Amino acid sequence: MKILLINPSIRPDNPRKIFPMGLSYIATALHDAGYRCQIYDIDAHRFSDVEVKKYLTDNAFDVVAFGCIVTAYKWVKWIASIVKSAHPNTVIVAGNSVASSIPNLLLEKTDVDIAVVGEGDTTIVELIRALENSHSLDNVNGICFKRQGRVVSTPKREVIKDIDSIPYPTRDLFDVGAYLSASKYNTHEAIPIDADKLRVFNVNTARGCVYKCTFCYHCFVKDKYRIRSPESVIGEIKDLRNRYGANYIQFADELSFPNRSHIEEFCDRLASEKIDIYWTGTIIPGALRKADLPLAKRMRQLGCVGLGYSIESADANILRMMGKPAGLEKFVETRHVLREAHIVTFTSLVFGYPIETEETIRRTIDFCIEEQVAPSSGYLLALPGSWIYGYAREKGLIKDEEQYLLSIADRQDLHLNFTSIPSEKLVRLVQDGVKRYNAALGIVLNCDNPLKTLQTRSRDSLA
Ligand code: B12
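That is the input. Now the predicted structure with cobalamin docked in place:
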């Protein structure tokens, strides 16, 4: 079986290069099952469209597989059409949210043959085996494919219960050097390492999330939250240190630490193994209370430099509509504890829920100024599979799904206006708000583009 895995470049103009963790889990599963795959890493090498087209036309494979965020739907459509027109017999497989959240549309409107839904590690191996042996695809759970012009879905794939059992993703299957050379663009805060000496790696410590926010969709949204043991996570970190001299780890999870006891266990293990590393992760507001200041200080001592947890809005009704149970008080409490411990807060705002008003925007901005946080900000982006996407369909805001998907891109621009504020005014209110917190906090976020694609810097000191 000649298999090609492709990593797209979804932000080709951005100097950040983020190692494709999902695809590397897929590559590792195939590799461990005895399949040698070729990897065409467009993002690492920033191949041009002309180069991509030439490579895919000149080289033939039995299977070409790729996956990405649904916002890059247009890229998937393009790549599938190139492969299919040059090599009609190649089987095209797609995974990640572009497959999980819109399997029917993807199979109907593009040249993709098979959509892998949800967790891909086991499915991809079973799928390749079935294709290799010309077995029926009906016995491969977790996929959708077309039979006689109709989309067929197999039963849901059972998720891997013990995620410690998943092998560490093999970074060597990719060009690690290309990612390391972009390390300095991947950190948000000023840690005391020379930019050129930074060696940043992403690690996934969990799959899924305990929250079900109404604007969110990710591939594990229908599955139970699963978390790795500290032993397993620290084993991977040690491996990254030994092999590549990693000195900074980003836990790129929906939720790395669901509660304080997980944090404690992780810190105990890190301390006992004497691992000297900087790290960031994600928590939920309220994970650390006032009384946890000593724990937060210990985290900082053990290298934790930043934690992400959400505000999204300072309006209680909007938070309720977002399905965010924690509330602002808990955010504030955690914020104060971490500030005192010199751990930077990463957070974000989503403007434009249906009940957003001039007053709620003002309140949210005031809140950020009071709490001295400079969130990454964007407008509500309706992602297929989320509650708000269903709402947008129901209200007639999205009439043609494919047109909508082709129109959205990697930034949280204002694509759909859910509010009763006229669009121009909404944009002006948000831009004026960003200008206000820029001025109040002495930071420079681009006011014309106060969007998620921009890195934000916190004013918090790490010292
Ligand atoms: C790193 C990251 C990024 C990186 C992308 C890096 C990359 N090379 O893909 C950057 C910073 C560029 C990014 C940007 C954005 N992101 Co982002 N990002 C993440 C993050 C934090 C980690 C991804 C990860 O490592 N996952 C862990 C792996 C194990 O899970 P996985 O990728 O889902 O992979 C599994 C399956 O999906 C499947 N699979 C994956 N790939 C493949 C391939 C094949 C062939 C197969 C068969 C299966 C398969 O198998 C894997 C293993 O089981 C996730 C949150 C998260 N924890 O997932 C958000 C997340 C993916 N991002 C999200 C969003 C909303 C965005 C933005 C729109 C935000 C914004 N406004 O800027 C942009 C869009 C960018 C664009 N151009 O379109 C959403 C997804 C939205 C969606 N419905 O697709 C997520 C889930 C966060 C969230 N809950 O909101 N992101």
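The chain has two domains: 3-147, 182-440.
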